[in-house]
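Re-running the complex after MR caught last week's input typo. The corrected sequence lines follow. Everything else is unchanged.
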Amino acid sequence: MGIVNVTPDSFSDGGVHLDPKDAAAAARRMVEDGAAIVDVGGESTRPGHEPVGLDEELRRVLPVLERLDGVPVSIDTSKSEVARRALRLGAELVNDVTALRADAAMAEVVAESGAYVCLMHWDKQPDYDDVVADVATFLEARLRFAVEAGVAEDRILLDPGIGFGKTVEQNFELVRRLPELVSLGRPVLVGFSRKSSLGRILGDPSAKTGPLSASVAAAVAAYERGATILRVHDVREHVEALTVAAAVAG
Ligand code: HH2
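Corrected-run output:
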């Protein structure tokens, strides 16, 4: 999954794709480089981000989606109206970092469309007993909620939410013990690309991002532990590394 952030303030690529033509071209390049889907987002979720109103989020993402006919698209939003409009323009997946908690209408929009949905763990006031067990319990509850709201179970993906209310150690533990999340029975998506924990483990305690080499290592480690979808900024390098990792796995 290639990342196309149409935002001025995303943590690693903010401001890069503000022109819809540039954003659409970047998305198409990602597909040429081997991405199975591109995740288009109009609101940053980094720590301390500015909340974006509905009109502004629509203004950012719709002109990009209109230019992506024929490209497999995921919409990164927690607003049902953004999801609804994106689905009408052909998006196949709703990537909701709040796991259907921010907008009461979101579950119904997803259920009625028959689209895929990614449910991500995010606890803003974390107090974990065991981070992996707590994330698994949360994801299982959100999976149940989505199914009860009418979303077909085979359309649901789960995501531990790397970097969302977790320490450096907790982020790595979630990847180390990923099989415990895979055992919930749904495909698992992992987004470690360029996140600050990668820069921090390399020795910079105030790092805001991590380098490509470290992103690739984290993606391969997640793949080897059962991740199905890797959400990444640098598609070609990840596709190359994952192709080799898959050849080794046989
Ligand atoms: N991470 C980010 C945004 N959306 N969605 C899922 N499912 N999983 C993630 O790990 C995830 C996500 C944050 O990364 P990015 O989009 O690069 O930055 P920003 O939120 O600043 O736009």
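None of the earlier attempt is carried over here. The longest helix spans residues 131-148. The radius of gyration is 17 Å.
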